[in-house]
Amino acid sequence: MTEPLLVFDDVHLSFGAVKAVNGVSFDVGRNELFAVIGPNGAGKTSIFNVLSGVYRPQQGSVRLGGDELLRKSPPTIARLGMARTFQNIELFTNLTVLDNLMLGRHQHINYTALEAFVWVGRARREEIRHRRLVEEIVDFLELEQWRKMPVGLLPYGVQKRVELGRALAMEPKILLLDEPVAGMNLEETEDMARYILDIRDELDLSLIMVEHDMGLVMDIADRVMVLDFGTRIAIGTPAEVQRDPAVLHAYLGGELTDGEVAG
């Protein structure tokens, strides 16, 4: 067995008397799609904020490929290979699709402002290389027809795809997806599910997904972790989680069906 890519070990995060994350542990393997679910207030977003360096827990360890993350800044964590999308779209609406995707390359830029201004040598070579990679993402996510349009004019589902592409432009080792299909209709959800699976299978990336759409989670996740009041109550395959009595109790005593949405 290979070593996991990410290890989240006995993490405790409290805000006063409120325990947002209470001794949670899990790991994520290479090329694994790992889902985190739970009722509202269960601690899902807090875990994402710990992973990306926004929150600093009082206890525990988070390691990515052997690097300890807990005392590192968000930019440093991003450079080590962590990228994230957001539940609420965070794009520059007045910029084109290509410009938004190019912003994902910022941590890979090695030329100076002066070199960029005169547009010679290293700046020119790197810009061409970055643009070539971004064009590959445009093809991968089927964004060709919108590539030069301001993202503020695009349909919601396409904007979510652009945000996904910007995260991919960072060349991450692991991708955090915060409710990737929130607000989407059925067709958009099916398209996003296909892109997520392609990212895992064709780009060989690991993914952690927080999602309320139980149909999507149970269909595409390799493993699922269930949280309730900041505590892990179950972890396993989708089938194992759906049969777990603690999970059924957390979801108001009802069986998790494919179409159910966790509140």
UniProtKB/TrEMBL annotation:
<feature type="domain" description="ABC transporter">
    <location>
        <begin position="6"/>
        <end position="254"/>
    </location>
</feature>
<keyword id="KW-0067">ATP-binding</keyword>
<dbReference type="InterPro" id="IPR032823">
    <property type="entry name" value="BCA_ABC_TP_C"/>
</dbReference>
<keyword id="KW-0547">Nucleotide-binding</keyword>
<dbReference type="InterPro" id="IPR003593">
    <property type="entry name" value="AAA+_ATPase"/>
</dbReference>
<keyword id="KW-0813">Transport</keyword>
<dbReference type="InterPro" id="IPR027417">
    <property type="entry name" value="P-loop_NTPase"/>
</dbReference>
<dbReference type="InterPro" id="IPR051120">
    <property type="entry name" value="ABC_AA/LPS_Transport"/>
</dbReference>
<dbReference type="Pfam" id="PF12399">
    <property type="entry name" value="BCA_ABC_TP_C"/>
</dbReference>
<dbReference type="GO" id="GO:0016887">
    <property type="term" value="F:ATP hydrolysis activity"/>
</dbReference>
<dbReference type="InterPro" id="IPR003439">
    <property type="entry name" value="ABC_transporter-like_ATP-bd"/>
</dbReference>
<dbReference type="Pfam" id="PF00005">
    <property type="entry name" value="ABC_tran"/>
</dbReference>
<protein>
    <submittedName>
        <fullName>ABC transporter ATP-binding protein</fullName>
    </submittedName>
</protein>
<dbReference type="GO" id="GO:0005524">
    <property type="term" value="F:ATP binding"/>
</dbReference>
<dbReference type="GO" id="GO:0005886">
    <property type="term" value="C:plasma membrane"/>
</dbReference>
